[in-house]
Design goal:
alpha+beta, Glucose Permease (Domain IIA), 2 domains, eight-stranded antiparallel beta sheet, three-stranded antiparallel beta sheet, 16% strand, elongated
Length: 409
């Protein structure tokens, strides 16, 4: 809850604080505003909500005990991400102290943890993103051992379909634990390393049923996610490689005339590439040009020419002008991770465009709400073909106003 409120405070401050003061004042003001709210408002609300949920589960445990592990197995990831799972602790301790065991949290939590591990390992085997593969594999093993925060926050919260399957798998495993009366006899973070907490005082039946519930949760989740599939997350490395390939193909085109001007593809404020918080663009590794902080979510063609590349995620487009300039327009920073969400393309690769034609629309506010910058680099990528690429406009520009001039060798 604190982080959720902080996200809005941070975005508000980002809009009102001048850039020159942001580095120091934004973190400080975030802390000064959110910290009191955390202690005075958010903490008490979270505690009351968690306690209310725990009381409800306790009532169900008395009347329909088999249902509680099913519910906990399904909703435990949601409780964990909000911190409400701590509301279960007093009821667990009360059970250990009065009857020697508890059935409210441990059995359902065990199934949920196994489901988290299964989902993370499934993602690790199927994803093509090297960074995600590494995180998913390590966090999947950790989840199976009993600690699921890395898997939850690093994998399944990013891939919504994986989170849904985790909840289904946790519910099915929890249901088996409920109908067989699985009990927890010691306080632990349920997983392979804490299975001794499910050894009963009389025989091994409780432990066996706990293990079966684990297997059910793991298999249901892994198989379900494997066959249902999920939308993979592209890595920054993959995007850079793709842009580089576009640049290489564009550089092969022969320049045709001596001089050319590039118009602005959008309305906004012109800034230097060096001001962008991305080393690839700021270091001019992908080309030279300018960047624009857009005021509206529309990208128009800056030249008469042909669309040479349109990214599947619609956040970037490549053009070749009739005069030979190869142009890359990249909307936002790291927006490839949105997987095309909030972007609409009106052109396709190979289409001919005229100066001022609408090519892409994007939802600025929603992209910012997701935590991404919308500053848009406009790059000339066939830099070797030109003697000079010069920014000739600063401040606020409208579409079709000249922003770059280029001169051939």
């Amino acid at each position: 809850m604190i982080v959720w409120v902080l996200s809005y405070v941070e975005r508000f401050l980002d809009k009102v604080i001048p850039k020159i003061f942001k580095f120091f004042f934004k973190p400080l003001l975030c802390l000064l505003i959110v910290a009191p709210l955390a202690f005075i408002v958010l903490g008490p609300i979270g505690f009351l909500a968690g306690t209310a949920m725990s009381i409800g589960l306790d009532i169900l445990n008395i009347h329909v005990g088999w249902l509680v592990p099913t519910i906990v197995g399904a909703i435990f990831p949601l409780m964990l991400m909000t911190g409400m799972h701590y509301g279960l602790v007093p009821f667990m301790i009360q059970g250990y102290a009065t009857i020697g065991y508890e059935t409210i949290a441990g059995p359902g939590n065990l199934s949920s943890n196994m489901a988290q591990g299964a989902a993370a390992l499934c993602v690790a085997l199927k994803t093509k993103n090297k960074e995600l593969k590494q995180v998913a594999f390590s966090s999947g093993v950790t989840a199976i051992l009993g600690v699921t925060e890395p898997a939850l926050f690093g994998v399944t919260m990013k891939i919504k379909r994986a989170l849904y399957v985790v909840m289904i798998g946790g519910a099915v495993g929890g249901f088996y634990a409920g109908i067989t009366g699985v009990r927890g006899f010691a306080f632990s973070s349920p997983g392979l390393l804490s299975l001794p907490a499910f050894i009963g005082p009389n025989d091994w039946t409780n432990l066996i049923n706990a293990c079966i519930s684990m297997v059910i949760a793991f298999v249901v989740t892994f198989v379900g996610l494997w066959f249902w599939g999920f939308e993979d997350i592209s890595s920054n490395e993959e995007e850079t490689n793709t842009i580089s390939e576009v640049s290489k193909s564009q550089k092969s085109v022969e320049n045709k005339i001596l001089n050319e001007v590039i118009k602005s593809p959008m309305m906004g404020n012109v800034i230097d590439l060096k001001e962008i918080m991305d080393p690839a663009f700021a270091g001019e590794m992908l080309g030279k040009g300018v960047a624009i902080e857009p005021m509206e979510g529309k990208v128009f063609s800056p030249v008469n020419g042909v669309v040479t590349a349109i990214f599947p995620t619609k956040h970037a487009i490549g053009l070749r002008s009739d005069q030979g300039a190869e142009i890359l327009i990249h909307i936002g920073i790291d927006t490839v991770k949105l997987q095309g969400k909030y972007f609409t393309s009106h052109v396709s690769e190979g289409d001919r465009v005229a100066l001022g034609d609408l090519m892409i629309e994007f939802e600025i506010d929603k992209i910012k709400e997701e935590g991404y910058e919308v500053v848009t680099p406009i790059l000339i990528v066939n830099v070797d073909s030109y003697k000079e690429i010069k920014k000739i406009m600063s401040g606020t520009v409208k579409e079709k106003e000249t922003i770059i001039s280029i001169t051939t060798i």
